[in-house]
Amino acid sequence: MSIQRILVVDDDALSREFLVEAISALGYKPIEAKNGTEALERAQNSNPDLILTDLRMPGMDGIELIKKIRELQPDVPSVMITAQGTIESAVQAMRQGASDFLMKPCTADAIEVVIERIERTARLISENQYLRSEMNGTPSDLVAKSPSTLETLRTASRIARSKGTVLITGESGTGKERVAHFIHQNSPRQNAPFIRVNCAALSEQLLESELFGHERGAFTGAHKMKEGRFELADGGTLMLDEIGEITPNLQAKLLRVLEEEEFERVGGTNTLKVDVRVIATTNRDLAAEMRSGTFREDLYYRLHVLPLHLSPLRERTEDIVPLAQHFAEFYARQNGLETPRFTKDAVDRLNGWNWPGNVRELENVVQRAVVMLRQTTIDVGDLAFGPTTSGSSPIAELSASSPTTALGPSLANRQLEEIERVAILSTLDSARGNKTEAARRLGVTARTLSNKMKLWRSTGLVA
Question: What is the mean pLDDT of residues 319-341?
Fold first, then answer.
């Protein structure tokens, strides 16, 4: 949270004048009100970031004012100023929702300390809320055995020590997000936030709001001020996933942040300064798009400071089995199961598959196998692959050796459908109900996932 506008409420003109001068000297914008009724009007019209109110006022006192403002704008913090010098009045103010209190006569230094404390607390709350929403219950460790992956991680370690912008390229599912997180964790910013936004999942207006935040009333549905991901990532790292999907308008605004480290919220006029390291990822050829004119040349070179390319899984086959075992251990532990081992035939099948969906596809295949497993080993028949690029299904190829074939194609199909349903529900659960995130992990669109859920609800398979 970045406090800029502070509503000062005091019926005593001299006290109010002192508070206004102190707040102005600290670099904040004061908004004056001489009583509770006037303060409510100012709060609705001016959208303050903080309320600084006296306790004792004629008519509506400070405690009643805080209660009413919290009904209108529950996220706006408040500080109670009291001359009573009693613990009881301070405790009562805090119980009614005050974030802090000051005792009269207060100094400019005391006011500054309280404001900074509220900013720090609000920022921690925002970061925790974001991190809780982003916790996806997926394995985060990087597993590397092939020479190319080991070299990639060595390069990532060197990149982590620098401050430059990073551009990670590679096919969908190669693990770009995990490498971005690896860079953050091994950087001087490791104790600061790591914030992610998927540029491909949002419309231009929503993405602009997510990146830069918005002021209350900036557009229909903007009922309160919202901090953007750049603010949340201040001091840390912001990962812009699928950067090639952003529109030319947002490309220009992003370029300004990268060059000047400043921006305005949507619908706002106050310029905010941030210190954020950007890691961008894409599965597109940005150089080709730059040459064709669909991606800004100046933004491309601003992003392409420290490039890092991830090879597809089919080109680093030494990683397949270690990754598969890693995912098996993770999902067995997550589901309270004994860690299974892979049979030789299953290992041969894993090594022989082309992995069009890369590491993400491998994770999904192993997760489904673990969830549906009825023994302590994963065999060929437990591996349900997706369709190949040619349209043929390896499930059909597996049917000859699968135990389900003897039960007939109809029953086999029903078992495969059950595998699909359990895998989707399990992924949704681990994604805490976030359909967009679950769809990303499953390698399908959010619409496909929603249609599946609607079908299962209509047939009573899910509640």
Answer: 91
* pLDDT at residue 359 in the model: 92
170: in domain = yes
Q: Angle at CA 356, nearest 5°, toward 160 and 284?
A: 55
Sheet with 306-309, strands from edge to edge, namely 194-198, 237-241, 277-282, 166-169, 306-309
Query: In terms of pTM, does the model score above 0.70?
Result: no
Residue 82 bridge partners (DSSP): 103
Residue 351, domain CATH: 1.10.8.60
32 and 56 Cβ atoms separated by less than 8 Å: no
Structural element, H or E, at residue 351: helix 344-352
At 86 the pLDDT is 58
**Cis peptide bond N-terminal to 409, omega within 30:** no
Split at pLDDT 50, 70, 90, the class of 393 is: very low
Do both 306 and 322 map to the same domain? no
For 21-42, the pLDDT digits (tens) are 998 988 889 999 999 889 998 8
53, 67 in Cβ contact below 8 A?
A: no
Domain encompassing residue 57 = 5-119
pLDDT for res 362: 93
Cβ-based neighbour number of residue 4 at 10 Å: 14
Considering only CA atoms, which of 80, 139, 194 is closest in space to residue 327?
139
Tokens of 76: 């706006």
- Nearest Cα to Cα of residue 60 among 40, 82, 31: 40
DSSP state of 226: B
Rounded Cα distance between 408 and 386, Å, is 21
Residue 365 has pLDDT above 60, yes or no: yes
